[in-house]
């Protein structure tokens, strides 16, 4: 599917970093376990996000032609003190500002190494946008905050990108769990019930022998997941349970659960 404009991604990265700052400034317990990433505390989640932002900043700013170890990224380990929400918020804000500046300066077509075969700055603008969207949901859940609503254009693009990633993993890492998502004749339908019809926020995902194939639009399927677009997105990323308020599963629920258990970066 067509990507969003490059500046739209940059604007959303800024917005999502600001939303993280709101969580940190709220007095949230930094030692709280992140329920959707139980190996991390809230502080560790934010450190992960800031590390990723600083790594991508370096990749884009230097027009890297190969992977750069995180150990070589200045400031990637955090603000230097632990348990200080204000210092963590400032460090994250600086991380976000740096990557947005690098992305805006580079533009979407600048050559930059990536792990996904799309070696452009535009790939990283899109990837960091959706990384932040999903991890902000993690942070909100850890802090007991409302999840809020993801802008519809961003949420729909995040679904597209996730499907693209699943197919990339299927084709390039065939031994990973995504390889089991080859079930000819089986299909999934995602249906956002609150989106503007012009957005066409419905997806048909077919589990073909050659890997997943998908298209936007309404169609019958083996199983359907219906609900508000933000909820559909977060359930598809395993950040909300399928029984969350507003969500509805129609058809073969076990197939949807099978997908959720196996669809991953690999």
Automatic annotation (TrEMBL):
Q: Where is the MDMPI C-terminal domain?
A: 153-257
The molecular function terms of the Gene Ontology recorded here are: metal ion binding
Domain Mycothiol-dependent maleylpyruvate isomerase metal-binding, chain residue ranges per copy: 11-140
GO terms for cellular component? plasma membrane
The leader peptide range reads none
The protein's name:
Uncharacterized protein (TIGR03083 family)
Species source reads Streptomyces capillispiralis
